[in-house]
Amino acid sequence: MSESCSTAKSEVVLLATHKKLATHEVVVQQALAERIAGLLGATFVGDYDPALHKGQALYYIPSDTLIGKKAGDALSIHTVDDFFGGLIDFPFMATKAISHPLLKDATAQPPGWSTRFFEDAGDSVLNGFSVFNEADARRAGRQLLEDGPVRIKPVLATAGRGQVVVTSESELDQALAQQNMTEVSEWGLVLEEDLHDVITYSVGQVQVAGMTVSYHGTQRLTKDNHGEQVYGGSQLWLVRGDYEALLTLDLDDDVRRSVTQAMRYEKAALTCFPDFLASRRNYDIAHGTNARGQVCSGVLEQSWRIGGASPAEIEALVAFAADPSLQRIGASSHEIYGPATLPAQAHVLYEGDDPDVGLISKFTQVQPYDRTQ
């Protein structure tokens, strides 16, 4: 995915997908669309309407990964210059279900499944399985329980919601009884060894308006208004250029390993899924210790869509566009639940009482690049 000059776009639109957005997500995506439109020299005109926008030179911001080459062709999405997000062939490819193998004797396998992907990704992922029915889920869970606690991860949930850790077969059965098996049959379910003392790194790349920006960073967790631990934002350190530009930096060993694991994972996707196309690619890489005391690291999931770190990504793009000599920058995204006093230099994206999640504030900040990070 080499850098290229962006095809001229006249209008930027938000594109609805199967994903239902909370109010605060809609507001944030509208704000980010305005920023992207500025980068493209285009106008943000709101939600995509085929009757109004057909034939226009559109740049799309889908709410989730687009599925199916036909869908992309119908929208004239053919290159990374046409949209902010990703396009893949089958539903499971848009989720963390692509990250793990099936059981050797799996009784359910989705269309488009690639055994080679997991082989090529190798040690860039953690120990676990992807399953597409309850029987396989139960067998995979029991196998993994032989080595310690197992984390069950619904693949359509975001911000870490819906995950549960089980330590026995009875807990496994209870957790599986709570899953939507119709959803699982199409999108998948992940069962993965549970780690403790986890640090989650972020590695990613965005391509907008002829610019390529790559980054590493870390995530933070916070408690939502129901007391559940969820995604609370990201601190990113960004460079102008591709992943190789990241590797020229003075990186800690764990960060360097995270970058190389993300690169291997992405290379496997590009090799095994020939129609895969993405201008926004983000990988969460966990470093932690398993129940046997082994230090492990691997890609938890990919995000080929506008996501939690995108506000920071886009702030960096704006800064790079404004200063052609700028090569490195720090940017952070923040999500705070409940009452909050925001920093004076915060760029506020949303602050209010959301009908779905309650009181929440979302903002970004930009900092000079810190070579010690």
Notes on the structure:
The protein has helices at 23-40, 50-53, 69-74, 115-121, 134-145, 169-177, 181-187, 243-247, 253-272, 310-322, and strands spanning 11-15, 43-47, 58-62, 66-67, 86-88, 128-131, 150-154, 164-166, 189-193, 196-208, 211-223, 229-240, 277-278, 280-289, 295-303, 328-337, 347-354, 358-367. Strand 4, helix 3 and strand 5 (86-88) form a beta-alpha-beta unit. The protein is globular, with a radius of gyration of 20 Å. An eight-stranded antiparallel β-sheet has the order 15-14-10-11-12-16-18-17, sandwiched between helices. The protein has ten helices and 18 strands. The protein folds into three domains: 11-90, no CATH class; 95-125 and 127-194, ATP-grasp fold, A domain (Dna Ligase, domain 1, 2-Layer Sandwich); 197-367, 2-Layer Sandwich (D-amino Acid Aminotransferase, Chain A, domain 1), CATH 3.30.470. By secondary structure, it is α+β, with helices and mostly antiparallel strands.
Keywords:
373 residues, alpha+beta, Dna Ligase, domain 1, D-amino Acid Aminotransferase, Chain A, domain 1, 3 domains, eight-stranded antiparallel beta sheet, four-stranded antiparallel beta sheet, 10 helices, 18 strands, 27% helix, globular, disordered N terminus
Taken as a percent bin, the fraction of beta residues is 25-35%
Work out the number of β strands.
18
Range of helix content: 25-40%
The CATH architecture of the largest domain comes to: 2-Layer Sandwich
State Rg: 20 Å
Regarding quaternary structure, what we see is single chain
Q: Classify the secondary structure makeup into a structural class.
A: alpha+beta
CATH class of the largest domain: Alpha Beta
Compute the number of helices. 10
Q: Uncertain spans, ≥5 residues at pLDDT below 50?
A: 1-6
